Amino acid sequence: MEEKNKTQLWYNVAERVALVALVFAVILSALLIVNYIQTKSIDPLNSKALNQLMLQLQENQNDEALKEQIRALDLLARKAYFTNQWQIRTGGFLLFAFVLTFLVAFKYMSSLQTQFPDLNENIESEKVWKNKLLARKYIIYSGLGFFVFAFVLSVITEDELSGIGITKNESTVEIPSIPSSRELRNNWPNFRGPDGVGIAYNTGVPTQWDGKTGENILWKTEIPVPGYNSPIIWGKKIFLSGADRHTKVVYCIDADSGAFLWQKELNDIPGSPEDKPDISDDTGFAAPTMATDGTRVFVIFGTGDVACLDFEGNRIWAKNLGVPDNHYGHSSSLITYQNLLLVQYDQNSDGHLIALKAESGEVVYDQIRDTDISWASPVVVNTGNRDEVILNSSPYVISHDPGTGQELWRINCMSGEVAPSLAYADGIVFAVNEYARLAAIKLEGTPEILWETEDDLSEVSSPLATEEFVFVAASYGTVSCFDSKTGERYWFEDLPNGFYSSPILVGEKVYLMDMTGTMYIINAENEFNLVNKCELGESSVTIPAFMHDRIYIRGLENLYCIGE
Predict the structure, then answer these.
(1) Domain range for residue 484?
(2) Are residues 516 and 477 in contact, defined by beta-carbon separation less than 8 angstroms?
(3) N or C of the chain: less Cβ packing under 10 Å?
(4) Does residue 136 share a domain with residue 25?
């Protein structure tokens, strides 16, 4: 009897140890699983507060107090990260220890417990006893599976956090180099200039030149491989791309002399299709304009190949986004936002807004868009209290958060094959497409259509907006000026040749080039007043770039520099 009591005592002790170990193991398993889910959904380096401070730093990169605030917040995030990593590692070890303790205690309990009831018990009791044992086994095996699953997730979580690349050098937090608004406006970083809305901030440019006589033509450089993309400029470096069925190339040209600084072929991009897509001659393989963030340049071709180079022509990364399902060919130009490269990838099959990390090409988000194919390019503007990337397509004009891709608003106002990009001024977005309408979308409060018109619309050329006026040029040669607030048409002019190039506002003048290379310089006012008409001497469908008190224009064969 004494032996039986002693056995019962040890059995009770083992039972309590097993129970305590089991409870702690369950709690730790649940915490590790929750931690894994949080790690997958939250980027420890992408704090909303830190991103907001980085936006403020763009406006004033000399604010040392703001830089210290950013470093302090970054340091706090890093400390939290390392604490979290230690907790995951410790939690995994503790889970293993508690599960092992439970198994040892349970095994010890089993050795003390009689397997079957007394022989004098009836058969029915024996069946109940066996069923209890079987149920206990199922519970134990299920619990062990749960514990193993949680332990594996803790290992995966620690590996993924380690792969983020945060170092323990916490005292020297490096602030990413993001160009300020002033830097962007002092350069020509993408299609239609800063923000992509057709406003030039370098206004001391010529109003007279002649390509045939050479008047005010500082230099002319032949571009070997064709392309319909426009020049982009940072400092004294001009970037262009060219492509055909056999080659893809990026050019860097000196702004002062027109000499090639380097040429980089990009014919070995991973995933690039061997069979080139069928592309219209009017589009070609190098229609999209490049973009730059002041440190790197980005290019995309009609094959879906996108690449990043440094300013010396060294390739940083390259990849293929998938062959565009596009019956004319891909022509949407690139634009950057902070440390992201934004790509409008609207196709016959579906639409996408893709954001790639500038430094690595890694996909940050791929926002699916329920729109038809378009050839428009994104614009990035600050609409008063936030930055927005706004895209034109059929049937919607849609705004997204450029940092996350989240949709902010949409307006159903377009139809047909949309090629013109958007204009923006004074809280109003302007969207146009031939056989659809010119729609003014007021953003204050809930976005809604302020006014619309259906006369003399553009099918390729993008509109230009100011606080007072909206200018629209059509492919059949008409140019119209509207009141931006009411839609009243102030004037209409029917010119000899059509327009694919878009109007650019330079000070108080509008520069608009037709397809023959003739530039019309018009006063931005409510009456048609032609300042001058200048001949390039070569056909052109691209957007001029305005910098260094000069104009840079890509013709079908040559790049021109116009200055006095």
Answers:
(1) 181-562
(2) no
(3) N
(4) yes
Distance separating alpha carbons of residues 32 and 24, to the nearest angstrom: 12
The phi and psi torsions of 558 (rounded to 5 degrees) equal -125, 155
What is the value of pTM for the model shown? 0.72
The alpha carbon of residue 295 and the mean position of all alpha carbons in its chain are separated, in whole angstroms, by 17
Instruction: Reply yes or no: is the peptide bond before residue 324 cis, omega within 30 of 0.
Output: no
- Kindly write down the DSSP assignment for every residue of 498-550, as one continuous string: ---S--EEETTEEEEE-TTSEEEEEESSSS--EEEEEE-SS---S--EEETTE
Structure token digits, residue 117 = 């009831």
Is the same domain home to 155 and 251?
A: no
Phi, psi angle pair for 400, to nearest 5°:
-130, 155
Query: Which residues are within 8 A (CB) of 216 and not within 5 positions of it... i.e. 6 or more apart?
Result: 206, 208, 209, 210, 562, 563, 564
Residues 241 and 197 in one domain: yes
Q: Which residues are bridge partners to 276 per DSSP? A: none
DSSP class of residue 246 equals S
The residue type of 222 is E
204 shares a domain with 64? no
Same domain, 142 and 234: no
Q: Is residue 172 part of a domain?
A: no
Q: At what angle do helices 123-163 and 2-41 cross, to 10 degrees?
A: 40
Would you say residue 73 has pLDDT above 80? no
* Same-domain check for residues 91 and 51: yes
Q: Is residue 404 a part of any domain in this protein? A: yes
CATH number at residue 391: 2.130.10.10
* Residues 223-281: tens digit of each pLDDT: 999 999 999 999 999 999 999 999 999 999 999 999 999 999 999 999 999 888 989 98
Residue 548 identity (one-letter amino acid): H
Per-residue DSSP letters for 249-295?
EEEEEETTT--EEEEEE----TT--SSPPP--TTT-S--S--EE-SS
Strand positions, DSSP E, 348-395:
351-357, 363-369, 379-382, 387-392
Strand, coil or helix: 310: strand
Residue 227 sits in the same domain as residue 365:
yes
* Residue pLDDT, tens place only, 405-455: 999 999 999 999 999 999 999 999 999 999 899 999 999 999 999 999 998
How many separate domains does the chain show? 2
Whether 285 is in a domain gets the answer yes
* Dist CA 179 CA 452 (whole Å): 36
Contact 453, 482 (CB under 8 A): yes
Per DSSP, 237 falls in state E
Query: In the listed set 114, 135, 163, which residue is the last one of a domain according to the structure?
Result: 163
Report yes or no on 335 lying in a domain.
yes
For residue 102, what are the contacts with CB-CB under 8 A and spacing of at least 6? 18, 21, 22, 25
Question: Facing residues of 357 across strands?
Answer: 340
Task: Give the span between the Cα atoms of 491 and 481, in whole angstroms.
Answer: 5
Confidence at residue 42, expressed as pLDDT on a 0 to 100 scale:
52
How confident is the prediction for the chain on average, in pLDDT? 85
Q: Locate 301 and state its tokens.
A: 């071709």
> Do 43 and 155 fall within a single domain?
yes
What are the phi and psi torsion angles at 370 (to 5°)?
-85, 65
**The tokens 């002790």 sit on which residue?**
13
Q: What is the pLDDT of residues 319-344, one digit of tens each?
A: 999 999 988 999 999 999 999 999 99
